[in-house]
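Exercise: predict the fold of this chain.
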Amino acid sequence: MASVRNRAGKQGGAVEPALPARRRTGAGATARSGAGATARSRSGSVVAGRKQSGTALYWLGGLAISAVFIAPLLWEGLRSLQPESVVTTAPSAKTFGNLTFANYQTLLSGQDDILRNVINSLIVAIAAAALTALVATLAGYGFALFRFRGSGVVFGLVLLAFMIPFQAVLTPLFLELHTLRLLNNLIGLALFYTTFNLPVGVYVMRNSFLQVPRELVDAARVDGASVMRTLVSVFRPLIMPGVATTALYAFLFSWTEFLGALSFLTNDTLFTLPVALSNVETGTYGAVNYGLLLAGAVIAMIPCIIVYVALQRYYVRGLISGALKG
């Protein structure tokens, strides 16, 4: 019995030392897994830190670029709130202590009636933008989807108008509008702006139509859709960026153009805003009131900002589509 207990004791003694070894092995695995988790957390924090620093740099760069464009506009707005005697002098901190809306009150009063010129500019710019977008859409549709003899030559002639400034053909245009009885007429001025905005519009719209997969057109034809039905139902949602780009470009051109309006309009009640602002005087013939001129420039800037912000996302997408194919 004693020998049996001795053997059992020996066996038991041989079994007991193995348990701490297993415990040590488990502790080592736990330590290694903890070290791995720590390393992963550190790498994750490094990646997160890099993303945060990249986001911060992105915002700082965006704010810096925005400041380059916004600062002149804010400066113009502040200077427009100063009297004309202060505007023509060197700026200082003291000059910004007495801001007034007198310049705007003078422009909006019955003496200058600048609102009438703003309405004239809006009529011309909106009409030119709508006509340009409509005609350019139809022309781009034809150039992109239909192949006819001489289509490439015709499209090249349309693009050739890019290289012809209207100032070079101002006299023939004057005579043509006189023959058509469209001189001193807002409709004639809108048609004139439409004509010189069409090359850009046709180019953008043709490329917008080329971006649409041809399979959609074939599917519409199989379903029995006509040409106009295909344009309205299939293409219309897909070409809106190009239409917005064309309309925005035509609007901004028509809103800010000066020489054509000065040449084709002789009645001061029909003057557009740029022409009216060029006639702002102090009471002495030929002397410009720069306070009123700055206030008028701020008024002229407001519709451009509103239209651009409203069509910004379409405008950027339209420019990209025009750059991919040609």
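Check your answer against the key: The chain has 15 helices and no strands.
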